[in-house]
Every structure is written in C-alpha cells, then in structure tokens.
Amino acid sequence: MGKKKEKKEINEKVDVEAVEIEDDTWWWLTHKGIGATFLCISVFALLVRVAVSLHPYSGAGSPPKFGDYEAQRHWMEITLNLPVLEWYRNSTGNDLSYWGLDYPPLTAYQSYFHGLFLRFFDPDSVSLFTSRGYETYVGCHSSRKNDCAWHIAMLLLNPCLILIDHGHFQYNCISLGLTVAAIAAILSQRELLASCLFTLALSHKQISAWANLFQDKTDGASMFSMSVYYAPAFFSHLLGKCLRRKNPIHGVAKLGLTVLGTFTVVWWPYLHSTDALLGVLSRLAPFERGIYEDYVANFWCTSSVIIKWKRLFSVHSLKFISLTATVLTCLPSMVQQVMAPSSRGFLYGLLNSSFAFYLFSFQVHEKSILLPLLPASLLALEERRPFKWLMFYGLFSMFPLLCRDKLVLPYFALHALFMLLYHAPCGHGGRPRNARPNNTKFDYFDSFKTFMNGFIYLSSFILHIVYLTMHPPEKFPYLFEAIIMLICFYQFALLAFYTNVKQWSLLEHSTTEEEKKLI
Amino acid sequence: MESSSSTRQLLWFFAIAVCVKLLLIPAYHSTDFEVHRHWLALTHSLPLSNWYADETSPWTLDYPPFFACFERFLSIFAHYIDPQIVDLHNGLNYRANSAIYFLRISVILSDLWLLYGVYRLTKNADVKRRYLIWVLIVWSPALVMVDHLHFQYNGFLLGWLLLSISFLQEGKDLMGGFLFAVLLCFKHLFAVAAPVYFVYLLRHYCWKGLVRGFSRLSVLGAVVVAVFAAAYGPFLYHGQIQQVFNRMFPFGRGLCHAYWAPNFWVFYIILDKVFSFFLKKFGFSIQIPAASFTGGLVGDSSPFAVLPKISPSTTLIMVLLALSPCFIKAWTNPQPRMVARWIAYAYTCGFLFGWHVHEKASLHFVIPLAIVAVQSLEDAKHYFMLSIVSCYSLFPLLYEGQEYPIKVLLLLLHSILMWLGFSTKFTRASAPNTMVTAKKKGAQSKSIESSSPAAEKGGFTIGWVGKSYLLGLLLVEIWGQFLHPYLLGDKFPFVPLMLISTYCAFGIMYSWIWQLRWIISTT
C-alpha cells in the first residue's frame, strides 16, 4: 500500500514536470518502445483487414467472370499446373480470354507461391515488415513517441488500401510494401538496395495501360506501371545524389547495373527467345482500352465533360499528349530533386510525381489514388491537414466503385475509424498543440481552406447520402459520379499544386539543415 | 471541463470499438440470432398474456419479463425498418440483410448502457487507471466474441451490473439494490450473486439499530418487491405465472452443456472416466451409462459410471459452501470497496460449481473483475491470466474457419494491450522518472534501456508457471487445430474440445483459489 502511495506521489511530481505526458492517453502504449507499439497497432490493423475481408469481394457471385477474386484463383491454377513458358501463351490449357495473366512475372510467381502455400502466406506481412523498416527510421527522427505511434497507425490503417486490397481483393500492398522498403532504403542511404527493391516493385504489377506509351520504344524497363508512378522521383533523387559524388559516372553505372541485373533475374524465363518476351509484353499492355474509363477524378476524364478527347484525337496522339502532360507536370519536382536531393524533398517528389501520373497519365483507374496516398501518409507528420484532406477525397473518389462492390458498410466504418484515429484524444488531430516550426507556411493555405473547405466537405457529405438514396435523372445516369469526380479532381489538383509549391519552398530553407538531417 | 473531456475520450474508445463491430456484421452468428429475432416477432405480434405460452418456434421465450419488454421496445423499430422481421410466422429463420443489420446494430447500441456503467464506475478514478479499465471493458474481446459474433445482449446486461456496483461503491446501497433487482428481472442467471447482495445490504444498509434498521429493511424490501411486482405482476394478473416459471427454469437439462464449460465438473467427469477405466481393467464389471457426455445432451439417467450422481441441489449446496467465506467477510466487515470483488467471486463460484453452466457465463466475473484489476500488481497479474483463459475458453463458440483469424487476433490484441498497459502501470517507481528525462532529451533508445531493467525488478512480470501455462494454451490450440485433424483424422472429434475445457478449467480454478485467498486475507 505504502509503495503505491509513494508511486502516486512520484507520478504527480512527474506530471508537474511534464504536463505533456500527464494527459497523454497513449503514454502506456508507447512506453515500451516503438517495437511494442508497432506490434500492437499492426495486430489491430490485421484484425481490421480480416474483418473487411468478411465482406463481399469484387465480382462475388456474378458469373461468368466473377471478378478479381476469381482472377487470382485462376492464376494460381494456371501457375501451378502449367510450365513457366506457357503462362502467357494462349493454348488449350490456358484460355487467355478468361482472366489471362496480364500482370508482370513477379505477380505470376506470387500466384505460384500462393498456390503452393494456399494463402498461408499473408501479403500484408510484406508491407508490414517493410514499413517497419521505415518506422525505425522515423522513430529515430521524431522527438515524441506519440507522434510515432500516431504515424504508424496512419500508415497501417490506410482505409483506401484496406478497402481495395481486402474488399476489392487485390494485392496492391505487396508492391506498395516493396516501394516503402525502397523508400526506407533511400532514407537510410542505401541506394543500391533501394534501386533493387524498386525494380522488384516495378515488375510486380501494372495498374493502367500507361505502358502503351512506350510500346514503340524497345525499353523494357518502362513497360509496367503502378510503381512507375514513383519512378521519376526515384530517378531524379538518385541522379541528383550521384551527381554530387566525386565520381558521378561510376555511381550512375553501379545503379544502372543493379536495376538491369534485377530485371534480368525476374524476367529470366522469358529472356531466352524474343517471341516469349514479346508475348509477355503484349499481355502487359492492353491496347483496347481508351484514355479513360468510368469516372476517374483525373484531368482527362474531368475535362471530357467539355472536350471530347476520344473523338478529337486518335489513340496514338492521345498517348503522346498524355505523356507530354505527365512529364511536364513531373518536371518541376524532378528538377528540384536533381538540384538539391534531400530526404524530405524526395518524399515530396514521390508525392508530386505520383500526383502528376494520376492526374495526367493514360488509362488511370480509381484505385490509383493509392499511389499519391502512400507518400502522403509518409509525410503525415508534417502535412497533417493535407493528408487528411487527401485521404477524405481519395476515399470519396472511390465511393462509386466501392458501392458497386457492395462495400458501403466497410467504407463508412473504415472512414470513421480513420477519422477517429486521426483525431485520437491527445494525439494530434485538430488541435495544433505543438506548433512545429515547419508549419508556419500554412497561412495562404489556411485562407483557401476556410473559404471553400466547409462548403465542399458539406456537399460531399450530402452527396454520399444522395448517391445512396436517390436515383439519378434518366437523362444523365452518371450525374452523381460526374459530380463526385469534379469535386475530387478540383481537390486533387489543388493539393498537387500545394505540394509542388511546398517542395520548391524547401529550397529556400537553408540546405545545411537538410544535410544535417541526412547525416 | 474535466468530466466533459473524459466523456469524450470514453466515447472515442467506444467509437473505435463500434467501427470494428460494424465491420464484423456479416460474420457468423449462432442460433441465438434466430432466438432473439423470434422474440422480437413474438413480443410484437402477441398480447402479453401469450408471450410465455407461444410455441410457434422451438426458441420459446425463456428470459424474465423485463427482457421480453426490452425486445418489445426493439420490435417497434424493427417493424418500422422491415415488417417481416417481426412477423411471427413468415419471419421464421428470416435472414435478410435488413434483419441482420438491425439486430447487430441493436446490440451495438445497447452497449451504450455498458458504457454508461463504465463511465459511472471510473469517473472518479485517476487518469491512467481509467484508461486501463476502459481498454479492459470497452475493448473486451470476450464481449465482442459473445455479443457481436455469437450474438447476445450481454453488454447491455453487464451494464446494469456495473451500474449497480458503482452505486454500491459510492455507498448508495438502496440504488445499488434496486438496479440489481432490475437486472435479475432481465436475466435470472445473474441471481448467483443475490446471496452476497443480501448479506451485504442487510449488514451495511440495514444493520443500524432496531428502529432505523427495521425501517431501512422495509424500504429495501419494498423496493425489491416493487421491481419484481412490476416484472411479474402482469403475468400474475393473467394467470400465467406458473407458465413463466416453467419456461425460465427448464428442468431436465444435464449437469454440463454439450460443450463443457471449463469448471469443476470437468474434473469430476474425467475422474469418473479414469476410475471406470481402471476398475474395468481390474476385472470389475462396470456399466457404462448409455448417455455419454460426449454425445451431447444428458438425460435423467446417471451419466456417471462410478462416482455418485450429481443433482441440482448438490450443486446449489456446493455453490453456497464456496460462497460462505465471502458471507462471513461481508458480514463482519462490510466495505464498499470490496463489493466488486465479492460479486465477481460469487459469479466465479456459480460458474465453477453451478448446474448446466454455459461457457459464456465467465463474462459475468471477468468484466466486473476488470474494475479491480488495476488496483494492485497482484490483481493485474491475476487478471492477465484469467482474462486470457476465459477468452480462450470461448473459442469453440466460433467454430467456423472464417472467424478463426478474427478470434485469434482479438485475443492477441487484448493480451498485448493488457501487457502494455499493466507493465506501464506497474513499473518500479523510479522508472517513470528516468522515462521523462530521457524523453525530454528526445533519446528514445535510452528510455527503453533505462525502463526495462526496472520493469524486470519490480514491475509486471509473469512467473515461469504462468508462462508455461500460457504456452500450454498455445499447444492445446495447435493440437486441436492442426495436429489432431492431421494425425487422427475424424476419430475422436470431441478430444480437442475436451482438452480446451479441461485445460481452461485449471486456469479458472486457479482464479477461484486466488480470489478466495484474497477475500480471506484482506481485513
């Protein structure tokens, strides 16, 4: 008893000393160190994922093609039963029109292993363990443990990713996990490892037919997407760093060899004959799709309300236009990274280049918003408000897609969960309690926000309800989708502009500070 | 200001739990779902006099009248949402999404009552203790499994119990007694603690001189009688009271449920089996009873081969005997701060020695014990073990493959949270100090180094016995899930369940002995 009292007294003393800790809800959670916190949150994240996967997956019970789940199952079947070279060929045993393999080889290997292990191998574990690597980096740099716990929660409980992977049934988390690993490697100055990991991420999956653009060229490295969204940032950052070395050519050559070597290993079975290689490549680049599908909140889709791109230009010229637009929007952030490569600048660069791809590239799918979301969640500690903003509208832009998949309940539950965790008591949330020096630039952004945000938040909330309860007028069956798209595009464009400005304003800060952070 | 922020935080905890529970809506639900749906239909479409007489479905109403009224209240909304839910005949086995969503959400919302109970209990506790209690009760995996997966309204009922305890702890005995009487009219299984309530209230509330004491006794008696009259009066008026009691106390059920609850009788049965096995080996002729325990329900014939038959009255006497130290303590030294322990102890006894006990009944003492779990290091260690064991013993409730990862992750998360919370709460006094200084420097690695040795010395650790016991749980689970089907195939399908209940029975027995020792030793 006496001991308890004594402890209480000491506790009180402690409280006086550090008010910050006193009303800290999560003191006990972070007390044991980052490892335990990480374990705890990741178990919770796993629980949420398992719970989401109880809900119907994409195409469940809708013959004849059944959707993504059936596709994955079919690939397991193919990869288990057919020899490697047959995987991408149309044959009696392999009917390509029925969910032919159209992902790059690493996905095929993965299907193979899935077939072997019968899903005992959980794709999440990859992304979990790799983001762990990132967290150890962040852990060293953030002064408050609470920040770290909050950040881990934001990373692992990304509602968009959970909904797409476990509701919609896909394996995005693996390629994103590999990308996170690559980012972590770059942040801890291991460029060779980073380029190797990123190449793996590249060959893991294609999300859109962006690869079409490069079809004429013989460059195999650019054939596949998803992580291609990040390629400009990786490229410019690594280039910028190499240029600052004593021997730039040597550095570039080393990185180039690593990339080529990894590619060779992954694509080995297909390199024996040009026929096999071309077979794979043609499967990876579906031509028949147009510049946009459905209602994606990117530039082409949004502007098509006024300008009918598909009618005005041929597919080929559209490809060229979209390539030019994408490169042009990527360019500022690339230039910044080549000029002054820095860790934070790199993260902003990732965000900007993926935004550029999302907004302007050819054939973007709704779920591509995951790609800008990843660097945004890595930057969540610095860009708190924009992160929440992006998450909100990213989710919103996927709402029609998820409605079609009958994932309305998980959508709202995860949305609420995210908002709750974001506004965790005594976490960060809305209260800017500890004004960080970096956040002083918020002013012009704030005035924007107060002007428009309230109105748009409100209208998007109403749109949710309207979309669920009302039928659109017969004349415009996709009226609500179009409105959602317009709102989201406006937000995304604004955010992309803002992050570009932020990245360039990093230059104004004394570069010595950045250098110190790097070391 | 202080209280409003704490309410907000409690609501935050609750909201997180709600999000997870919402995600779990499409998961497996047991026949209890149809039971409750049928009760909605029954109370909605029949007059009060027929509630307990109806036999449209095998799931007849067997809860006390207040619960029936609660179902009647819910059925108003159910009718508004989808009339087929409350249709007595067309609604049988109705499993449309509307029914599932409505019933699941009604459980989630009725948990608000539990939340209020927790709030009342913890509003004067200090901050860190409060958070821990919230984590233990609001995020309880056992409640999620029983209420939100298996489907029952335990959270709501436990809310009444916690409210009653909170009033008793504040010294407001009359209110506490009133709430307990109401609880009994919701679910009569809670009556196990009634003797403890009786002794405590008689001594603490009424034993104040002859005149004052007598008047208080009559007030208390009047309150309790009024509650029971409100519940059973209408049925008495309609001449249904005999029928109500027939339904509420169905005799002819066996000593044990189909799946043995991990209690004392498990040992008794196994001892019987062992005896009969050896006696047969030595040449005695033993009649193996027809009704085997592993076969499911047990009839009237004695299921035991060697040991004497157990009758309901035997179990009653055993429960009362086990409770007697508690009576003595409550009589000699009635202290409000001990009430929660005594009540939890009573439910433990009822669980261990009771007749036809359900494994779900372990909630009745695990949840109240969470209140005292944060009071001392010893309590925390005991609660850590008990909570894991009781949660694990609920695993067979959810037997489908789809829910397997969910229950495992729930238990895992709960254990991690408990371990983190307790080990932070009960580190050596010096540890927080070094923590803060280290934290101020921003050197996080240093703080880990400085705090972990302290934790080892005097903090929250589990001895090797506890560790090996928990490891044994893991082995039992691995055996039941993987090795048994692999090695033995379909033979002896009852063995994994038997192993679980036997192994968990050790843990519950330990908890009972620990609680008994605590009750006897405190002055």
TrEMBL record, chain A:
Protein name: Dolichyl pyrophosphate Man9GlcNAc2 alpha-1,3-glucosyltransferase
Species, as recorded: Citrus sinensis (Sweet orange)
Source species, domain of life: Eukaryota
TrEMBL record, chain B:
GO CC annotations, alphabetized: endoplasmic reticulum membrane
UniProt signal peptide: none
Keywords: Endoplasmic reticulum, Glycosyltransferase, Membrane, Transferase, Transmembrane, Transmembrane helix
Location(s), subcellular: Endoplasmic reticulum membrane
GO MF term set: dolichyl pyrophosphate Glc1Man9GlcNAc2 alpha-1,3-glucosyltransferase activity
TM ranges: 12-29, 99-119, 131-151, 178-202, 214-237, 257-275, 282-298, 310-331, 338-355, 405-422, 469-488, 494-513
Pfam families found in the cross-reference section: Alg6_Alg8 (PF03155)
Gene Ontology terms: biological process: dolichol-linked oligosaccharide biosynthetic process
The protein's name: Alpha-1,3-glucosyltransferase
